[in-house]
Design goal:
Distance between the termini: 101 Å
Bound molecules: beta-L-fucopyranose
Shape: elongated
Largest sheet: 8 strands, parallel
Oligomer: single chain
CATH superfamily of the largest domain: Glycosidases
Number of strands: 28
Number of helices: 12
Helix content: 10-25%
Strand content: 25-35%
Strand order of the largest sheet: 7-6-3-2-1-12-11-8
Structural class: alpha/beta
CATH architecture of the largest domain: Alpha-Beta Barrel
CATH topology of the largest domain: TIM Barrel
CATH class of the largest domain: Alpha Beta
Amino acid sequence: MKKIRLFILAITALMFMPDLFAASAPAPLYPLPNERQMYYLHNPHAAFIHYGMNTYTNKEWGTGYESCSYFNPPKEVNTDQWAQVLKECGFDRIVLTGKHHDGFCLWPSQANKSKPHTITQSPYKNGQGDLYEQLSQSCTKYGIDMGVYLSPWDAYEENVGGNYTSAKYNDFYVTQLNEVLGSYGRYNEKLGRRELVEIWLDGATGSNNPPTYDFNRFVNVMRQHQPTAYIWIDALRAFQTCVAGDTCKVDGAWAMNEAGQAPDPCWNKMDTNGSNTDACKNKPNGQYFFLLEADVSIRNGWFYGDGGGLKSAVDLFKERYMKSIGRGIPLILNVPPDQSGEFTSEYIAVLQKYKEYLDTTFGTELTPPSATASATQVRGNDATFGADKVMDDDYDTYWTMNDGSTTGSVTVDFGADIRFDIVQFQEYIPLGQRVSGWKVDVKVNGNWQEFATGSTIGYKRIVQAKEVQASAVRLTITGSLAVPLINSLEVFRAHEDLIESDLPPAAGVDGQFVLEKEFITAKETDGTVSVKVKLEDRSNKEVQVYVATVPGTGVQGKVYQDKTATLKFPAGVNEQVFTVDLINNQNNEGAKDFYIQISNPLGGDVTIGKNSITRVLVEDDEK
Ligand code: FUL
């Protein structure tokens, strides 16, 4: 008896200690992203600004022999316009080329005291200019992050300045780093200092033998001044800063193209055993987490020259955004100012349209609050890891399964049909990038059909396909390096300009007019032929539609009597009949056809559906 009582006591105690049954989170799968990489992933829309000596010499790569007098903007360089336009167009950061390969500095550098080659030696503001200072103020004013591009390759020092032996150059470059990183950036109130969020060290080295850059030293200086800055150096060089068994000091690497596109599959892991840049990153089992960054220019060339080739907003959305951010990595889009020091109105118009596309596409959450989620398996049957975690707005919650499960699916049931052409889902990568295969299905008229398949997910995957009208979406993980962690599954409908669809136009708020049939037959002796005009999904508003006959092989006056009408649909009326008189002629002419068409819906937000025309085939009784 005593034993039984003890047993009951123990069970009751366990019931009131639910935590005892809670499953623990999956173990991390190394390597893991750091805070700087996660910050970039959460704010992935970067703008590059290539501006400097080349803007005035119409070159992409200067030689260093250019006279400082060439840098002569006609008025104050409008960094406020840069920051304002880019902020308003949805960009998170601006990275300005303070020094490109030609070596001309947009800040008053003192690094080469005897032979300076900077904005101070130019006519701009009578030698009082400092564009990193101006940009720091503009970024602070408009609330946009700032980064710097400081080319290690310095053609001026190589050809004229004299600091191009390894020992001299490393000291010279460190002086420049100290100047820039210690002074500029957007003011961050929390940190109580100016902050730079990105430091970009380009990989180009020119044709001659470059000095041996001391990247370890450079990176230490960077971290000392700007511990929160994301450091980008091309992969091979970044290697030099990787310490076995530790993390690399560098955060980002090249996506292997300058088209603004991530590779697919896209693994943000680098394998330092590789012998060249292609071989050493984008590997599922790489030992260091390196975030790839997709760079591209809005026009041909990086500087504003006469190359033209401005990309369209559709191109930016479909070919750049969807293939970079849509494949889980940040996008850095270059927007070069012209010789007046401003963005042209043509460039601004493209950026504004692009922003409109992004807003109208991703601005509306389509999943209704009443939607439900389910999964093939839930880790330890613990609600903490339940399927509904893909629907909440909390980045740190996710659906997952038991250790060892590397395949499985999660479904969101909308409870009603929704029209969408974009599915977006995220892997919870703070615990490591894992997924190597996925498939998305949608439920159309009660049947599952494939929407898209792919390999990696990473931070975020966005896939666009032909528009569907579906009641549920299902993400199936078909392969993963360890148990997968999925923290969101959402659907969107792209801006009309970007959609591919075979579906009828979506109904307006006040309804959608359709004709009941696409094809009907009649005999010429029937006297009349009728077709129903229906108003679907209507509101209480009175609306109207224009209906008319249209000739085919049969014409009015011979086969039918021409007729037009404006049909009114007062509240409560959902259909009307349109009747056409047929002509019983004596000709032996064979079957003839004509059409009845609806158009011009009026009276509210009312549209014409897919079936807007009925073909009427009139059989001939003389035959
Ligand atoms: C390249 C450079 O050589 C280009 O001029 C440009 O700065 C681009 C972003 O990186 O490698």
